[in-house]
Amino acid sequence: MKTLTTAVVLYLVLSAPAWAANTTVTLTVPGMHCAACQITIKKALNKVEGVGKIDVSFEKKEAVVTFDDAKTKVEALLEATKNAGYPSTVKPR
Ligand SMILES: [Cu+2]
Q1: What residues are neighbours of ligand 1 (ion), with CB under 5 Å?
Q2: How far is the centre of ligand 1, averaged over its atoms, from the C-alpha of 30 (Å)?
Q3: What string of pLDDT tens digits covers the 93 residues of the chain?
């Protein structure tokens, strides 16, 4: 049952709201370990449509991304870092 609950929560979190707004998420990127990784990740996220501010910290292994949720969604951000070679997850608030 726990898996089902998680799936429902994820669905609610990830499903697009009826209004458009800038959303900020913090992505945890465990594979990021130096300034070069930081740049690669930032570039990858920059290519995603609707992405605004990107703050990547290799020290924290985190990327804080602000995006227009009418144009993109969290999955696209996760996909972008994964395709760049850095799988990431959403850090719970
Ligand atoms: Cu590196």
Answers
A1: 33-34, 36-37
A2: 11
A3: 666 666 655 565 555 455 678 999 999 999 999 999 999 999 999 999 999 999 999 999 999 999 999 999 999 999 999 999 999 999 997
Q: Where are the domains of the chain?
A: 20-90
Query: How far apart are the C-alpha atoms of 55 and 26, rounded to whole Å?
Result: 9
* C-beta neighbour count of 16 within 10 angstroms: 10
What topology does CATH give the domain 20-90? Answer: Alpha-Beta Plaits (3.30.70)
Place of tokens 């995006």: 67
- pTM score of the predicted model: 0.77
Going from the Cα of 55 to the center of ligand 1, the distance in angstroms, rounded, reads 16
